[in-house]
User: What shape does this take?
Amino acid sequence: MKEIVDLRSDTVTRPTSAMRKAMPEAEVGDDVFGEDPTVNALQGKVANLLEKEAALFVPSGTMANQLSIKSHTQPGDEVIIEASSHPYNFEGGAGAALSGIQFQCLKGVRGILDASQIEEAIRPADHHFPVTKLVCLENTHNRGGGSIYPLEKMAEIYQLSKSKGLLLHLDGARLWNASVATGIKPREYAQWADSVSVCLSKGLGAPIGSLVAGSKSFIDRVHRFRKMFGGGMRQAGIIAAAGIYALDHHLERLKEDHQNAKRLAVGLKEFKGISIDPKHVETNIVIFDVADTGMIASQVAEAMKKEGVLIHAFGKTQIRLVTHLDVNAEDMEKTLDAFTKVLGRK
Ligand code: TLP
Assistant: This one.
């Protein structure tokens, strides 16, 4: 039987056997009482990596982002965010439903905003307007094609936010990828945010889990809302152990995912009708347009599936490929061969 190459997301990875072995051995306790030593160790480790006072383990990246938004805002506040960002587009409308905030969306370049755009968007102190309270950034930017926020841009936006009395939340679901690609430490990025969410279940290959990090008083609020949203877990050390294993063993190897993504981008550039610029592929996400191939994205995805390669159709003409722990260099060649069958060469 043909091995399937699954490039739909880096969330599809299965825990390695070494990771699975680390899980049943974990020391556990009731984390709602704060008594799970493995959860506490993971929270300490992530707080330390991000150089924040505290961190809290939560089930998902969505919950990490939404608890952060909830903890930073009041209903009716406005949150400035990039138009193709994850919290605005892919979290089920939670910002409005759970926090009663409204987003003001700004268009970035591959998801990256400039401080000047944000400055212009901040509402004046006039009772007609919502209160601008929070800025959300995403690094790497998913819909931006895994683009990396330049550190100096984050610093500028943070300094602007402080000067205007705003808070800044960073969706760092793939901050690990940005860090490995640039050599800039996660804490160097995190210094330019009041709160940071990070995921263990994307490139790092853990089955479950994200964390929110920030000041002690902020995390205390997040903790209260985690309880309220039903995200308090009990003997969660079983899954936290997988996260600790992932941070210890799967960080540096993200480089391989980036090389594999680059290989795909360079290979795809050769195809007729595909528009892609390999220099825009900075980490593990490859997004390209198939408008000029004569096929729409869902047809390409369907035809690729028949060749044993799963890909994600993003809208009518865009396709996303994501590299991860469960695919290797050989799979990239198989993928390019499958594209040759489906699309034909230039
Ligand atoms: N992204 C998923 C899908 O939801 C699109 C994916 O396959 O990429 N922030 C960012 C930047 C994300 O990419 C994701 C997941 C999340 C937050 C949410 O994480 P989860 O899925 O754990 O709630």
About this structure: The chain has a mean pLDDT of 97. The longest strand covers residues 132-138. The first helix runs from residue 17 to 22. Residues 179 and 185 are 6 Å apart (CA to CA).
